[in-house]
Design a protein that fits this description.
- There is one protein chain.
- This protein is 22% helix and 28% strand.
- With 106 residues, the chain is of the alpha+beta class.
- It has a single domain (2-99), classed as 2-Layer Sandwich (Heat Shock Protein 90), CATH 3.30.565.60.
- A hairpin with a 3-residue loop joins strand 1 and strand 2 (10-16).
């Protein structure tokens, strides 16, 4: 399970678990990936929900520059997206929304 943390001007996607030994944050930023669940990856590919492994982070990095960053803290990996203006009124730093991922055909 992953979850999101919303701050006034940022979103953090929080993922439990360490990176595989062959993968570093620097490699992720250049498009390398190491999927943990190959069955899910193949299913999403067959259903046309994904369009090329390892393309998302480099595309976001080109658009956001240094406002996209990763943090590793023990067993937690965070992808943080910083925005120039607040996302919404009333959101406090540290608010959390839990997202349970499921695959549903549109």
């Amino acid at each position: 399970m992953t979850y999101e943390e919303y701050g006034g001007d940022s979103i953090a996607d929080i993922s439990p678990g360490r990176l595989p030994d062959t993968l570093t944050i620097e490699k992720i930023l250049t498009g390398n990936s190491a999927p943990r669940n190959y069955f899910l990856l193949k299913y999403l590919d067959n259903m046309k929900f994904i369009d090329g492994l390892g393309r998302g982070v480099p595309m976001m990095r080109r658009e956001m520059g240094e406002r996209l960053r990763y943090q590793e803290e023990g067993e937690i990996l965070r992808l943080i997206l910083d925005f120039e203006t607040p996302l919404a009124r009333g959101i406090r730093g540290g608010d959390r929304v839990y997202i349970y991922h499921s695959v549903v055909k549109p």
